[in-house]
Amino acid sequence: MSFVIVGGGLAAATAAEALREGGYGGPLQLFAAEPHPPYIRPPLSKDYLLGKEGREGALVHPAEWWAEHDIEVRTGTEVEALGDHEVTLASGETVPFGRALLATGATARRLRIPGSDAAGIHTLRTIEDSEALRAELERGDRDVVFVGAGWIGLELAAAARGYGNRVTVVAPEAVPLGAALGDELGGVFRELHESNGVVFRLETKVTGFEVADGRVTGVVTDAGTVPADVVVVGIGAAPDTRLAEAAGLEVAEPREGGGILVDEHLATSAPDVFAAGDVANAFHPVIGQRMRNEHWATAIASGKVAAASMRGEDAVLDEIPYFYTDQYDLGMEYSGYPPLTRDARVVYRGDTAAREFVAFWLNGARVVAGMNVNVWDVNEQVQRLIREDRDVDIAKLTDPGVDLSEI
Ligand SMILES: Cc1cc2nc3c(=O)[nH]c(=O)nc-3n(C[C@H](O)[C@H](O)[C@H](O)COP(=O)(O)OP(=O)(O)OC[C@H]3O[C@@H](n4cnc5c(N)ncnc54)[C@H](O)[C@@H]3O)c2cc1C
């Protein structure tokens, strides 16, 4: 039976590798719309953007690895349609398959407001986006305005400051990352950025851009205009469900997180078609709810599960979502189930003012998520506490003197 994989990101690459590692020896083609072999995106807002590593540092495997493993990677090849056990490429070529994986990822959301097509306005998703942004930021003497105060926007704000630019973050919410972390923890990130010279214009809506000679000169908001030589729009990503929708596969509503609906085995509503990575909205058997996570670790975990399912094994995606970020001298890891944190209360172990702590989200006395900030080698224990799903002694949990392994 032949397998095809649609997508050139980490989920696609991991699935291809796991298929071979798991013993699948049949024909395997991977179609990647971008002109590169599969690569990872986290460096694009970190070391690659800062010029600290080259393109090869972002590749999942060196270019020759794919042929060595008898995986046919067809770069610059967009799959245009998904039919009954066949895909049609943009060239018109039809490729039959026994089983297929959709790992089409997500694309950066854009603003559709006056002036938004002007030069100097960027989004960040691809290697080329990162290179274009680096060329603007490395001059170091510019007014850079970030629209949006999410994870990627804030990482980029740190990078822009690192190059010495003047940085303003404009966002509609009252606290950066408030929706993801709550106001108190969002405030930790606000202070971090302010102490590094970033200016926040919060509770402020962007309505357009000032443009001169085709290039952006300012960000127009409901509270006045902010001068800008460079603008970065970081307002999230949208799952790329075009192929799946056109083929009639079930997809989630945007209010449910969007994405292709899959079960815990990552099977879609179409026979022999699976989905993984950013584009998959998967049923999580541990919490009994659906989730779509845009995380590097989920791309790996779901790529492996999809490969096992394609091989006919009984695999389920039951990992605890995990992600990390680095901003200035702050490093953080987060593990947990976002749907369970909505009504949770947050308790702390360590010193939030010194930005060296672990935050735990509790439902009653059960840990549903944890975030370690500049505290290392605790993620395994945080994940264990979440997985054990039992009442914990909160006094001990919040006492840095008690080893987490004893809780
Ligand atoms: C700048 C940036 C920084 C990030 N930093 C972090 C981080 O610090 N920590 C973290 O956990 N996560 C981070 N992420 C998120 C992480 O990179 C994603 O979760 C991960 O890339 C998802 O992998 P994927 O394979 O599902 O999708 P993608 O990486 O989006 O890859 C999908 C690929 O499929 C291709 N494709 C789409 N449609 C077709 C088609 N029809 N035919 C052929 N090819 C197609 C696309 O061109 C794309 O190359 C970051 C993301 C970005 C953009």
Q: CATH top level of the largest domain?
A: Alpha Beta
Cα radius of gyration in angstroms: 22 Å
Mean pLDDT: 96
What fraction of residues sit in β-strands?
25-35%
Number of helices: 10
CATH-defined superfamily of the largest domain: FAD/NAD(P)-binding domain
Shape: globular
Q: What is the fold named in CATH at topology level of the largest domain? A: FAD/NAD(P)-binding domain
Description of the structure:
There is one protein chain. By secondary structure, the chain is an alpha/beta fold. The protein has three domains: 3-107 and 237-310, 3-Layer(bba) Sandwich (FAD/NAD(P)-binding domain), CATH 3.50.50; 110-233, FAD/NAD(P)-binding domain (3-Layer(bba) Sandwich); 329-406, FAD/NAD-linked reductase, C-terminal dimerisation domain (Enolase-like, domain 1, 2-Layer Sandwich). It has ten helices and 26 strands. It has helices spanning 10-21, 63-68, 127-137, 151-162, 178-181, 183-195, 242-246, 296-310, 379-388, 394-397; strands spanning 3-6, 28-32, 72-75, 79-83, 86-89, 94-96, 99-102, 106-108, 121-122, 143-147, 166-170, 199-201, 206-212, 215-221, 224-227, 230-233, 237-239, 260-262, 273-275, 280-284, 289-291, 322-327, 330-336, 345-351, 356-363, 366-373. A five-stranded parallel beta sheet has the order 3-2-1-7-19, with helices on one face. A five-stranded parallel beta sheet has the order 9-16-10-11-12, covered by helices on one side. A five-stranded antiparallel beta sheet has the order 22-23-26-25-24. Helix 1 runs parallel beside helix 8. The longest helix is centred in the last third of the chain and has 15 residues, at 296-310. The protein is globular and about 60 Å long.
